[in-house]
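Recap for those who missed Tuesday's class. We walked through two folding examples back to back. For each one, the amino acid string is listed first and its predicted structure tokens come directly after. Nothing is annotated here on purpose, so try labeling regions yourself before you check the end of the notes.
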Amino acid sequence: MEQDIEVKASGVTANHERDFTNSFDALMDAFEAYKETNDRRLTEIEHCKNADPLLNEQLKRIDHALNEQQRHIDSLITRASRPALSGEIASQDSLQHKTAFDAYVRKGDEYHLRCLEEKSQAISVSEEGGYLVPNELDHELSRRMIALSPIRSISSVRQVSGPTYQKAFSVSGPSAGWVAETDARAESTKMNLQQRSFVAAELYAMPVASSILLDDAAVDIEQWLLEEIESVFAEKEGTAFVNGTGTHQPKGFLTCDKTTNDTWEWGKLGYIATGVEGGFADNSPSDKLVDLIYSLKAGYRQNAVWVMSRSTQAEIRKFKDNTGNYLWQPPAAPGGRASLMNFPLIEVEDMPAPAENSFSIAFGDFRRGYLIVDRQGLRVLRDPFSAKPHVLFYTTKRVGGGIHDFDAIKLLKCGVT
């Protein structure tokens, strides 16, 4: 029996929890319909060698509904995680900074910010341009970026005050051993130390405001600024964390050197090939996923996650184990993540779709494998001249990123070798 799956599009209401629960129930209903339809498709292929085209079309519609329902749930989670800035308890200095910043944004009045600069030597950095926003605004942007940027939500993040974060590490790991309290300690073997540098590059956005908006005292100007820049920043940095060149932007993990896992060496990411150009084998396609899981050392597997695009996830949803159970499973509870073979699945649209020799799936402990560096301070430069009668706000933050541990992330390549 064909089932029509409709995606609920209700926004956040006064009864947010009920809306959230209803959306989750709809997601589970959609997945049950997906399994039923796909089972019928597989049965027709087994008996007739080909599936009814109508079944294939129906499966695509349900798959699309699943994705849209999950996206709606994610948006509800994001909205619920945004506390009002005015609800935070601020110090006297913070209130002064907030008031001075509000006057600068609305009227271009720099006097009070300059007075604070003379007092603390930290509010303005003239050689870089603009003024630092209040700390509460900076911290709130960081919280929202975690909710909006999938790679940021699973990676390590370091706050730095300078332009570069440097860290020395041992490729072979630190020396260790057992010894009695009074025994002589053996001389440590020489460790192979390397140093990696993570440069915080400048990311900018330029929201535009009308004079009417700036003159409206009822408008929370800080909230307006956050809403204008958060999605733009999240989109740009999310792309860079995956495919960034490392030149004036973070170094994406997919742009690092790669090698087959059998010949893996430090400085490269190891990969497993599917054995089929542009996709997966017709028989036992999930075997390569199992190989990918166990290509990762046990110490990394316990915190590992899958990273793939929506189109790749749609392909993986069809996979079953030897007992006929689907390997992809929806979230076990509202607010949870979908899982694949009992590991959380993170949807990242910057990951490539299955294609010839594409690296469409990453699996690993990103908390240990990928490092994001945030330089403290979000800056805003008011420009009332370039787009009269509107006002531009040149807003900048500095962020860097790169592979931290090359042994913590593995890739799946849609290719023969």
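Example two. Treat it independently of the first, because the proteins are unrelated.
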Amino acid sequence: MNFDDYCQQKAAPAGSSVYYALRQAPLAAEPRLTALFALRRELEETVKETSDPTVGHTKLAWWHKELAALAAGEPSHPVTKALAQHHPAIAALAAGEPSHPVTKALAQHHPAIAAEADALRTLVNGYGMDLEQARYLDFANLQRYIAQVGGTFASLVARASAANPADPQPWAADAGRALMLAQFVQELGNDARHGRIYLPIDELQRYNVTAADLLNRRYSPAFTELLQFQTARAREALAAADAAIPASERRAQRTLRAQIALAGALLHEIERDGYQVLHQRIALTPIRKLWIAWRAARRR
């Protein structure tokens, strides 16, 4: 299996929301976006499927090293750039050559990956927070995690999609934060089964819902009120994020726009189903995902 096939299967299996969001990307950007989504999935699996924090930190340290090698792989001098481009042995020597299929794909398809070293480091550190804590006292405390993971990743995607990767795309961090708020609602039951609750403790207390209620899948009027609040906050954030995308970027940012629309539609479906997210994972049908992503990507 070549690295592109690996990234496709890791990031966006057929029928998934990411699959349809990536299909909306400009053709030239799709391979590097797929590699970025595959990287996110690798980091998610590293922390969420590892029971021993020490093992998790060891794996993340490996990713730090691998991504550092990737980011160092683009020489700065014009002469060495030319040599690396046309001489594989020199390119391998300069980079320390990344070994993972995802980093190989990024090296191949992302021409500005060297400039993303800080963002990649921040992203890995953000996922490292999952190894340190599984609960958050309040929303302000949770925001740091949301910013490091969701905000950083969406910014990476936005710059990789932009006509000029050097443009900072400051609006993108809010889009990433909004998508994570929606994900917390969708994945509430699954996250709880893995020992993680991303709803702040003070908000659970405000609505008289306990962690044990979530872990034991206990529905109640209080739980419904809690989810109504969480859904309304996520929906408001998604709408604001979509509105903030500059007109000049709307065509290039089709993938993030499709993700925002899909997240909003899923929140509506969860609401329509009575917030029954503790014992099941509510999802849209593939044909609905296709239609929502296609329409959102072409809306002005």
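Answers for example two:
The chain has two domains: 1-115, 133-300.
The longest helix spans residues 221-244.
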